[in-house]
Amino acid sequence: MKNSMIKKVHIGLFVFLLLNLLLSVVLEWGFDNRMMFLVRVLIYATGVLLFFLTIKNRSAITYYSSLYILSPIVVFFSWLADGILGALLGSVFFAFLAPTDTIVQNDKYQIRSQYTGFLGGCCSYSLYETIFPLFEKKVGEFRAE
């Protein structure tokens, strides 16, 4: 009973995240940044919970949810073995979970630094306009030297 409920919540949140990705790529609109960070954290938490609830079944969902457990372990050991490999894998892993850093904001606009990973360049920013309290639109990108 618990497994199916958590699985439905996980899949629903994942579909919501994909819908936001589709909206942001096609229309450059998206849901509020804080709400999407919460959705990403909930997806990760339900993925970990699914792993522990389905570990005895050895089903496809167990192997899928094991990625949520194994990915930070792989990043940690690759960082111990070789700092550059760990930084590259960590950049990929944390791109999913890293919150965006808001530099300046007012009632209508926000300037955020873009996530470029641990080995990325400096000073890339995006300008977002708040359309409704729930939506935002990407106005443009710029780079400061």
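[next item in queue]
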Amino acid sequence: GAMGLFDLFQENIGIEEGLEKMKEVEGAVLLDVRSEEEYQEGHLEGSINLPINRLPTISIDKSVPIFIYCLSGARARRAEAFLRKSGYEAVNIGGINGYQGKLVRS
């Protein structure tokens, strides 16, 4: 897998730092596990939306590192646990409720 991806992460890094780290990981995917409605109202650029209740349908290859966020970080934490158990390299970067950057509407 990605060079000790989890070693990069201290617990509870901020989402900005998480996004910076993501840029260093080749081929990483940014996963938004909020509802479709929430996603449409504003999401991080380049993110893929897969609501947490649909997570078992994920079709991303297990060799791909996944960076997960939601609104507060709670759903992302559950998604991270589920994906790691399923054999993914997954990292919860938290919630966008504290994010200062630009969000994209769709």
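[queue empty]
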